[in-house]
């Protein structure tokens, strides 16, 4: 059964990422190839609009803005002030006039009416919030592409992989019932898509969902 994120869980997540912000880029460096694969799976074209939900320190922004070009638009949403500050610094350093950032929860974000694509990269807590998913999907045009990447339980016989998932989840996830939701963390998002497929990476401990609205 799904339970919405409580205010306490939201505050715990904010505090966690405030603490992690300074070292976040280093922590995520191991997943850079997976990030590039996820962005490539969006099949972005020049002039399109893409949403980067839970954009963190902006690690996906360079590739996203390059893919849509100066005639396109990138909107990043991040509720953690320390993470957002680093993303804003990236935008300023890159002189990306077509990249816009919002400092708020995804459920409260002001989104364009018809975006062409959306990326959820290691955003487990966001994907367990029906209000956030409803807002995002309401602002994607029919046929828009959605890609999500995150932790998931591997088969029971892959014990080392599940130890990795457990450790990473304890370190980074604050959604209620997250241990149960890791069996199919894409479930709520997939239910809103017209079509999707899920592939596994890293000894089945990380999933990559590709779908369309």
As a whole number of angstroms, the C-alpha radius of gyration is: 16 Å
Task: State the assembly state of the protein chains.
Answer: single chain
**SS strand fraction:** 15-25%
Alpha-beta content class? alpha/beta
Percent range for helical residues?
40-55%
Q: Tell me the major beta sheet.
A: 7 strands, mixed
Give start-end ranges of low-pLDDT stretches.
Answer: none
Gap between N and C termini:
24 Å
What integer is the average pLDDT? Answer: 93
Tell how many strands the DSSP assignment holds. 7
Strand order of the largest sheet: 3-2-1-4-5-7-6
Return the string of H and E elements.
Answer: HHHEHEHEEHHEHHHEE
Number of helices: 10
Q: Choose one word for the global shape.
A: globular
Description:
The chain is 40% helix and 22% strand. The chain has 213 residues and is of the alpha/beta class. 41% of the residues are buried. The longest helix has 14 residues, at 7-20. It is globular, with a radius of gyration of 16 Å. β2, α5 and β3 form a beta-alpha-beta unit. A 7-stranded mixed sheet has the order 3-2-1-4-5-7-6.
Helix and strand layout, with pairings?
Layout: H1 7-20, H2 24-28, H3 32-41, E1 49-53, H4 61-68, E2 73-77, H5 81-94, E3 99-102, E4 115-121, H6 124-127, H7 130-138, E5 140-151, H8 159-172, H9 178-181, H10 187-190, E6 195-201, E7 206-212
Parallel strand pairs: 1-2, 1-4, 2-3, 4-5
Antiparallel strand pairs: 5-7, 6-7
């Amino acid at each position: 059964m799904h339970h919405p994120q409580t205010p306490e869980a939201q505050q715990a997540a904010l505090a966690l990422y405030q603490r992690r912000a300074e070292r976040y880029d280093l922590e995520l460096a191991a997943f850079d190839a997976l990030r590039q694969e996820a962005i490539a799976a969006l099949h972005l074209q020049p002039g399109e609009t893409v949403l980067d939900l839970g954009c963190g320190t902006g690690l996906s922004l360079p590739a996203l803005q390059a893919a849509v070009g100066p005639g396109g638009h990138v909107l990043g949403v991040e509720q953690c002030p320390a993470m957002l500050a680093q993303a804003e610094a990236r935008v300023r350093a890159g002189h990306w006039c077509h990249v816009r950032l919002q400092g708020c929860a995804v459920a409260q974000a002001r989104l364009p009416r018809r975006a062409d694509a959306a990326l959820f990269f290691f955003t487990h807590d966001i994907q367990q919030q029906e209000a956030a998913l409803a807002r995002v999907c309401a602002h994607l045009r029919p046929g828009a592409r959605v890609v999500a990447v995150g932790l998931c339980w591997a088969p029971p016989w892959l014990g080392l992989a599940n130890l990795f998932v457990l450790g990473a989840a304890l370190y980074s996830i604050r959604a209620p019932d997250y241990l149960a939701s890791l069996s199919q963390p894409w479930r709520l998002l997939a239910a809103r898509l017209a079509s999707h497929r899920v592939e596994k990476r890293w000894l089945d401990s990380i999933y990559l969902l590709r779908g369309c609205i």
